[in-house]
Amino acid sequence: MTILIIEDEPKTGDYLMRGLAESGFAVRLARTGREGLAMAKEGAADLALVVLDVMLPGMDGWQVLAALRADQATEQVPVLFLTARDEVQDRVRGLELGADDYLVKPFAFVELVARIRTLLRRGPAREDDLIRIGDLEIDVLRRRVRRGATTIVLTSQEFALLHLLAQRQGQVLSRSIIASQVWDMNFDSDTNVIEVAVRRLRRKLDDPFPVKLIHTRRGMGYVCDLAPVPVPVPDAP
User: Fold this and answer.
1) Domain ranges of the chain
2) CATH topology for 130-224?
3) Whole-number Å distance between alpha carbons of 83 and 103
4) What digits encode the pLDDT tens for the residues 34-81?
5) How far apart are CA 24 and CA 32, in angstroms?
6) Per residue in 92-125, is it b (16+ CB within 10 Å) or e — as a string?
7) Which sequence positions carry the modification called 4-aspartylphosphate (predicted)?
8) pTM for the structure as a whole
């Protein structure tokens, strides 16, 4: 299985190709968006993952990603954006268009390899288009949320938070995991951004309904489930 790099900056492209090859991957390199798209379609049967720059000549990364997702042969191939565009709206746009991960330049090569291996472990199938937990229904592709007959309007950040919790239903997610997955940042114990975001999500998702879905495990994190995860009781001495 092959990793396709689509990168127009010569030094970066050569560096990635050499480094990934030395890490044990089969690698191909395209210098333009159109060339990369053609190579992806021609080699779709053996394509494991695409590492894609955004700022490409002629056909940019956004257009390449849209074309990959619109083609049945490549719609399930994982795509990792690797770009100097570090604005939050760029990361959100990439993920909403169907990218599986987004890494900002400059980057640590070991982190890139770790992210690639994580994506490859997920296998070729993409996530379910519909997630259901009790009366909660999440339409992943259309980014729509309902509880019963009620449509719940969420911001992009609130949707990302709910999606993460729902994907891992029943698992307690620490604040550091949530921070890295939703905000792409290292956890800072002095900030309450996660608590504020969870509180806002609960106001929309839980407060109007008798059955609560988002539960707090004090000192551990948050979990999405129909019932709160029981706190373990220590064995008697």
Assistant:
1) 2-121, 130-224
2) Arc Repressor Mutant, subunit A (1.10.10)
3) 7
4) 999 999 999 888 899 999 999 998 899 999 999 998 888 888 899 999
5) 24
6) ebbbebebbbbbeeeeeeeebeebbeebeeeeee
7) 53
8) 0.53
